[in-house]
Protein 1
Amino acid sequence: MVYDLFNIFLNTLAEKTKSQKLRFIDTLYNYCENKFGYGSLDNALTYINIDLITQICESYFIHLQNNTSDNNINVTETKWKASLDFLLNTLRMISKGNFDNDKINDLTNKFNRIERLYNFLRINKKKSLENIRSLPSELIEYLYCLLDPENQVNNPFKPFRTRWQTYIIFIMLLHLGLRRGELLSLPVNCIKSGYDNRLNDFRYWVNIENHHEDIDERYNKPSIKTLTSYRQIPISKSIVNLLEYYIREHRGKTHHPFLFTSQKGFPFSMEMTNRLFIKISKFIPDHLKEKLFNKNGKKIFLLMILDIHVQ
């Protein structure tokens, strides 16, 4: 029966596409023979075994996805569509005239479900492996010591206020996973709190959103890039204490509402942040600098590793 319907299916195609379709369907049959056993595809179609057909669709799609190259995506996509069309058309032809109306309606709904599930699947390019961007523990420990505001000997920055602001920036990038734009958009009153009755204690967080865009006079305005970047981030009491101390003792009075400020009282800029970490990078010992190289030997700027967007 399947053989006869297979010929009917081929006769509906243009002559120039028949040979290609035959190759694609033959590939599907060979896959099913190896994966599910001899005659498995014919049996699934003849007896309209929806569970097995669904399993075949899922398994074959994953097989195609895992065994294609970026150069053959279009061919593999065509192969997948041809196989799915063959399965659905054959199922619909087999069901006609062999069942009562209720059964046909039930099968039609199941066929439509298969079509909805698998018709829009696309073969995607393989993603290249990303370089590990997290800082190794020994480098983190070194940076903690280097940027300690009380470290008057080795700290790259001489003004006490600059040492404190740099330390706070480092802590927030490292522990909150903020990007530069998110960090520099924070207002001075960014700390939010609320009493949690379940914990019988206060909880603290910061809201990541575009703050005071209308009055931001910076040339390169920091901003939130995507909708998924708008979020609440819980913060520990220890970081809250550090922030409150910085605001109270070292931020100073300014004409703007942003948390971080330059020595002249202007909002801290993206360029200033870059220069900050370029200077820090120069103080990292050679044996730790090797940790900032990727597999191609290209140096990774320290801020690039800290400046990670958390999904």
Note: The radius of gyration is 31 Å.
Protein 2
Amino acid sequence: EWLSGALPRRGGLIRAGVRAVLPRPAYQALRTLAGKPRPLAWIPKEFARRISLADRLRAKDPILQPAPSATSARRLARVCRGWEQHLLETDERDAAWLGLELRFPFLDRRVVEFALALPPNLLRQGPLTKIVLRRALHDLLPPAVRDRTSKAEFSHLFADALRPHGVELSIASRGWVDPEAAAAMRREFLEAEGPGLYMWPLWMIRGIEVWSGSAARLECGA
């Protein structure tokens, strides 16, 4: 898959040829030796142990059926996990605030089954992804749109939303978050240009903080 261009050259060989076959502890050890940050370093080790986080991570993205390749396995895992449903529900709630009702034509069962059956060389060729979709719209889109390899970048909105909030976290007192790690991540993200490494973890931390505060207010009201 990597040699055919179905996977990106940068990192593609590692993900498909190394990560796919190495046990998770060995892969994490290699990341540490390479100077990569520990995944979920903002979660205290004691809390991670108490909730069996390592076991949960090993059990994530269940593959319900055998897949013919690493690429197929990743696509199947993405369809099976709950993250996609969470995103759809979030999008629908956002649209409802604006009085809109969303439709998802690409989630038609026939389209999904067709996409899952595509060979790797029709998924990615060099820097281009969505090869079948690009070809299908070849005569309908101008080259500047059809051959685009980038997309809109909205990370500044995350920064604008996080900046007014300080580093104090009530969930840190519960032992759910390492306050020093969270503060360092926040500082690095706000100082960086572009999406940065910690955008999504910080957004998760902020979301949990808001949820925790709402739950506490409900308990007090009760």
Note: The longest strand covers residues 124-125.
